[in-house]
Amino acid sequence: MLSRLTRPQKLAGLAVPAAALLATAAFAPLPFSVAQPGMTADVLGENKGTQVITISGAPVRETSGQLRMTTIEATSPDTRVGLPDVIDSWFSTDRAVMPRDAVYPSGGDVEEIERYNEKQMEESQDEATRAALDYLDRADENIDVTLELADVGGPSAGLLFSLGIVDKLNGDGSGGDLTGGRVVAGTGTIDAAGTVGPVGGVPLKTQAARRDGATVFLVPKAECADARTELPEGLRLIPVTTLKGAVRALTDLEKGTGKVPSC
């Protein structure tokens, strides 16, 4: 004999599996990473006691101001991120939930991912050096550039590396500094042709930049909208698409000439 449930009984019966699903979701690992503003480093100076940019084979300028590359800190690839972590981060301005695949390459263990990020950093440094020397028309000279940045992986410091090399070798081209004595921060990949690419995590990087004294932030133009979200007070955004455009914008800002682009 089959019993027939009334509507309240049906709802009560459905509530048990629904609650079970919610409980499971609350504790099940999700394919996300939780990120927050990370360290920044002045590529014109030292990081952890080591000069970031070392140049031999050509005279190097004394520089003022700072060019700070920016980072985010994310939960490790093997960290379990659950629903409470995600919900908590949604209500925080200094944390963000990002798809794990957007932070780490998929399919590898922690050691493989670390090796991948280190390789990306090495390739980024090579591209940044080539882009800077080509921009200065000095690629055929016997100039040796060494870039050292401990405990940082990935390609997103490429633009700042290139700008640091340009500033040390040439400044603004007329005896001044690219920074104009300011603390300038930024992010962006760069290829050997000097094209700047997007990186992700920009709202967190702007917070790291302002925390460490920056008043100007160079952002890949494609990420202007992201950069404007949670933008710290007192931080000016300058969109860039190429190394040449970034140098021109900083020079115009320093000299007070030309129209400096904005997001």
Automatic annotation (TrEMBL):
Keywords: Signal. GO terms for molecular function: ATP-dependent peptidase activity; serine-type endopeptidase activity. GO terms for biological process: proteolysis. It comes from the Bacteria. InterPro entries: Lon_proteolytic (IPR008269), Ribosomal_Su5_D2-typ_SF (IPR020568), Ribsml_uS5_D2-typ_fold_subgr (IPR014721). Residues 153-236 form the Lon proteolytic domain. Residues 1-28 form the signal peptide. This is Lon proteolytic domain-containing protein.
